[in-house]
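Table S2 (continued). Query chain:
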Amino acid sequence: MVIEDVKNILNIKGCYVLKDSFFRDNLRYAVERVDELKKEELAERMVGTIRRRFPGQSGLVYCLSIKEVEEVTEKLNAGGVKAMPYHAQLSSEARKRAYLRWFTDQVQVIVATVAFGMGINKNSVRFVLHYTLSKSFENYYQETGRAGRDGRPAHCILYLKFADVFRVSSLTFTERHGLQNIYAMMAYCFNRRTCRKRQIADYFGDSWAHQCGDRCDNCASGGGEGDGDGGQLVEVDVTEDVADLMNILAFVATRQDRKLTFPKLMDLWFGKGEKRLRPESLVICRHSREAAQTIVACLLVDGYLKEEFHFTPYSTISYVTAGPSSWLMKGGGGPQQPIRYWLPPSSSSTTKKSGGKQSAKRASTTEGDDSPEQMEAVASKRKLTLKSDDQGKSKVTTNGENTQKSAVDYELITLE
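Corresponding output:
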């Protein structure tokens, strides 16, 4: 994408493009879910990781905001890890001093925003940690690429919080390709079956003729190029879950004239939040919180859900609505093929391999929901809700650009 943008801006179409492989054999990529951790707890985990795995070794920590840079720097120093901040609001002298002290190993870690970029070249960087999600795949690859330039093993760890996706999208949706970029990062993070390095190669259009050698978390857990099941992931038919989410969105929009943020949608799906926003036929989510977040992320990447943004004097709020692909649920009959995603195991999720049948009993907020009368009422309600949603289809618009095909490993729905 960057190459094409440069060619278009410079009006040099038809030129020869020379590029090297994006494959870095010595780098180990990993994504760690940390939704349950507060900011202070995540900083403490990073302190433990640095002191235990990288004692005395040089590294970088990337943050989304200047405030985070200052907070993380303070926590690292308090935990016994010598660190200095680096961001655009520091004077040029302060930035130069921080860089020189880090380059000469007087401090172990630089905590930085994207301001710590071009021209930075220290060969002995052993780890790059991302405290928050990068704004784009291009940024992420450049930032992780500052590790291991001496050819020795180095680690690149991204700490993923589901809420960070919407923090970043609210900051970047007005940028060219802003949403497309963050959704590509989201697809990478939530794909736990495909080799991380292969995902990077696919994104940049690089041919894949390499072996990861378990140098990413997916391959090491048995997914990716391994022979296992991607860390005991299970393939789950989520078609009914999608209908449940659409039911919630339609009910809130038509009956309450409200919009939902993603945290509120998740709360309602789990039977929490404001009672008046819960449909009478609400079906409680049968999955773990982590699996439910994975479903919502995949649906967002795949266009079943979409973000709409509202400006306030103090912030930009991201709301979730039915996306352009939701018309496949038209009439409540569902898409022509089931929607399946690979999810982390859950005591209430249906554990099935390809072709298996769903067996988990679905809980409902209404009593006796296993009776034929109640099931018929739920189905009828769902159809009415989905029809109402379809009637509002003309109101569906996309903010930014339409996303390309998801990098998440699942079965795409095709229309003959």
